[in-house]
């Protein structure tokens, strides 16, 4: 079943890649980043070094990773929808009760920028934050998520 789910993710990425005429692989780069983060959690730059040194992969470049992440963000709804529809074939979803949880992530940067804004942090940190909302079904399985800038309430 994991293989089926991976293939569905791969199919969704290939569709986006065709539509956008992107040259780099929208599926393999995130997969490599995930493997690197699991095996050796670090920054994107350090993960890239790990991918090249430990996994023996020559590509991608750091610029490819940032372009890819922007492209995936633009197509988030299509990717989440594809994952949800495929997951219902693997395991039925109990949507009689829905849960919503919200958390925030802080950034150790000097000034607010883009979505990273000063807001109320549960840790009372004086750093810019981004807020994340997560919808889950009755079994606690994720349905969707959204990101808000730090000053949203």
Overall description:
With 153 residues, the chain is α+β, with helices and mostly antiparallel strands. It has 2 domains: 2-90; 99-149, no CATH class. The chain is 45% helix and 16% strand. It is built from 5 helices and 3 strands; from the N terminus they run H-H-H-H-H-E-E-E. It has a 3-stranded antiparallel beta sheet. Strand 2 (129-136) and strand 3 (142-149) form a beta hairpin. Helix 1 (2-20) packs antiparallel against helix 5 (76-90) and helix 2 (28-39) packs across helix 3. The relative contact order is 0.12. The mean pLDDT is 83.
What is Rg? 17 Å
Residue share in β-strands: 15-25%
Largest sheet, in brief, is: 3 strands, antiparallel
DSSP summary: helix tally: 5
In N-to-C order, the SSE pattern is HHHHHEEE
Taking all residues together, what is the mean pLDDT?
83
Helix content: 40-55%
Tell me the structural class.
Answer: alpha+beta
Number of domains: 2
Q: Specify the overall morphology.
A: globular
Strand order of the largest sheet: 1-2-3
State the end-to-end distance. 39 Å
